[in-house]
Specification:
Mean pLDDT: 96
Number of domains: 2
Number of helices: 9
Radius of gyration: 24 Å
Family: Belongs to the peptidase U62 family.
Structural class: alpha+beta
Shape: globular
Helix content: 10-25%
Strand content: 35-45%
GO molecular function, one term: metallopeptidase activity
Domain Metalloprotease TldD/E central: 119-224
Largest sheet: 6 strands, antiparallel
Number of strands: 19
InterPro entries: Metalloprtase-TldD/E_C, Metalloprtase-TldD/E_cen_dom, Metalloprtase-TldD/E_N, PmbA, TldD/PmbA_N, TldD/PmbA_sf
GO cellular component, one term: cytosol
Order of helices and strands: HEEEHHEEEHEHHEEEHEEEHEEEHEEE
Low-confidence stretches: none
Length: 448
């Protein structure tokens, strides 16, 4: 794997080759990664894996025609060949009036903010094994747990570098550490599985494997003996670990490509209140040690903290340069990309804030409802907002969580769901996307 400085030098050579081959403009992206993972099951080592890879993607423009080529061979000769092939392909590509690099006057310039996403700690395979065993042992020690799907631990590093013919040069090195456990509770016809995991940029921020394992075991046991539920309209609470899925549906609906195509249920909602007053949804790429923190986006534009939803009002689309040109707007610094194609748009560290009620108060007035802790399937229509997903969780009766429920379907429409959303005050920053407990009244729950 190349260092950030060496990666930028390699990209400079690729861009020079593209210009010599006849490209009017070009950009190049390097991604190198390496990770070690250890998995155990029933107290025994099951697998030790080490993966490494690196690739350069070259995107060239000949007029408004563009093409992308990627190569895992980073030798000078291979990059020259890839650049020449990309230019040949671009000359045959259809004309696209919206294609092009990001505006040169909008490019970020260094020095870039230190987001503290590179941890010098490098745990050995033996240390990873010990962590995976500790997580599984803690899960199996929970009374009622009868089997294990295993424990795991991992550590990895990624180097990313981006350079453009318009003068942008930026690179970063980031690390990650993770621990997980998955176990089975019960026996015979009543067995339930659940899991827990945590990941962090720095090993020091990673939760104890004992805590992760115990959480997995307790979750599995709590799901034993689920009941069937009669169908009807009722309040639904989304547990924080799946509440973030609602943020994902919103983010997908406000990407520039969806708006430009007219295929989003939110295409006419800019500047309107789509969530209740007091609710804010924040995209914060500059969060220290964030799992998706970055000082520049996939096109070299500076990133910034953005209130996508402010006081319930939709304030912005997520725009890369191409979709911004199509809509007659400016790119927003949300471009994301891989090595094999043009950029799209997406979020970084996303979270919902503004909730004031504890989870207990959120459910205090519910005579019958459901706390959903797991979602199954992807029954969401991005054009209409219609929402229908399989689910399991717990019955809420007279303001209290009582019995587990399984094999239910929850349904509604995302526009209505967002408008009725009530947020709890239990927001915790554990993942790249974070939300507190969320309540949505009037959802249809289909059971037996």
């Amino acid at each position: 794997m190349l260092s950030p400085a060496d990666a930028l030098n390699r990209l400079d050579a690729a861009l020079a080759a593209a210009k010599r081959a006849g490209a009017d403009a070009a950009d190049a992206l390097y991604v190198g990664d390496g990770s070690t993972s250890v998995s155990v099951r029933l107290g025994q080592l099951e697998d030790v894996g080490r993966s490494e890879g690196e690739e350069v993607g070259i995107r060239v423009f000949v007029g408004n025609r563009s093409a992308s080529v990627s190569s895992s061979d980073l030798s000078a000769a291979a990059l020259i060949e890839a650049a020449e092939r990309a230019v040949m392909m671009a000359r045959l590509a259809p004309d696209d009036p919206f294609a092009g690099l990001a505006p040169a006057d909008r490019l970020a310039s260094g020095p870039f903010a230190d987001l503290d996403i590179d941890d010098p700690a490098e745990p050995s395979s033996a240390e990873l094994k010990a962590r995976a065993l500790a997580a599984e042992d803690a899960a199996r020690a929970v009374p009622g747990v009868t089997n294990s799907e295993g424990g795991g631990a991992s550590a990895g590093v990624v180097v990313m570098a981006l350079a453009t013919s318009t003068g942008f040069r930026g690179a970063k090195r980031s690390t990650s550490h993770g621990t997980s456990a998955s176990v089975v509770a019960g026996s015979g016809g009543d067995m339930q599985r659940d899991y827990a995991w945590h990941s962090a940029r720095h090993l020091a921020d990673l939760e104890s494997p004992d805590i992760i394992g115990a959480r997995a075991g307790q979750r599995a046991v709590s799901r034993l003996n689920p009941i069937k539920l009669n169908s009807g309209a009722m309040p639904v609470l989304f547990d924080p670990r799946i509440a973030t899925s609602l943020l994902g549906h919103l983010a997908g609906a406000i990407t520039g490509s969806a708006i430009a195509r007219g295929t989003s249920f939110l295409k006419d909602k800019m500047g309107q209140r789509i969530l209740p007053a007091g609710i804010h949804i924040i995209d914060d790429p500059l969060r220290l040690r964030g799992l998706r923190s970055r000082a520049f986006d996939g096109e070299g534009l500076a990133t910034r903290r953005t209130a996508i939803i402010e006081d319930g009002v939709l304030t912005t689309w997520l725009l890369d340069s191409a979709s911004a040109r199509q809509l007659g707007l400016e790119p927003t610094g949300h471009a994301s990309r891989g090595t094999s194609g043009p950029p799209g748009a997406g979020t970084s560290n996303l979270h919902l804030e503004g909730g004031t009620l504890t989870p207990a108060k959120l459910m205090a007035d519910i005579k019958q409802g459901v706390l959903v802790t797991e979602l199954i399937g992807m029954g969401v229509n991005g054009l209409t907002g219609d929402y229908s997903r399989g689910a399991s969780g717990f019955l809420i009766e007279n303001g209290e969580i009582t019995r587990p429920v399984a094999e239910i379907t929850i349904a509604g429409n995302l526009i209505d769901m967002f408008a009725r959303l009530v947020a709890g005050n239990d927001l915790a920053f554990r993942h790249a996307s974070n939300a507190p407990t969320l309540r949505v009244d009037g959802m249809m729950v289909a059971g037996s």
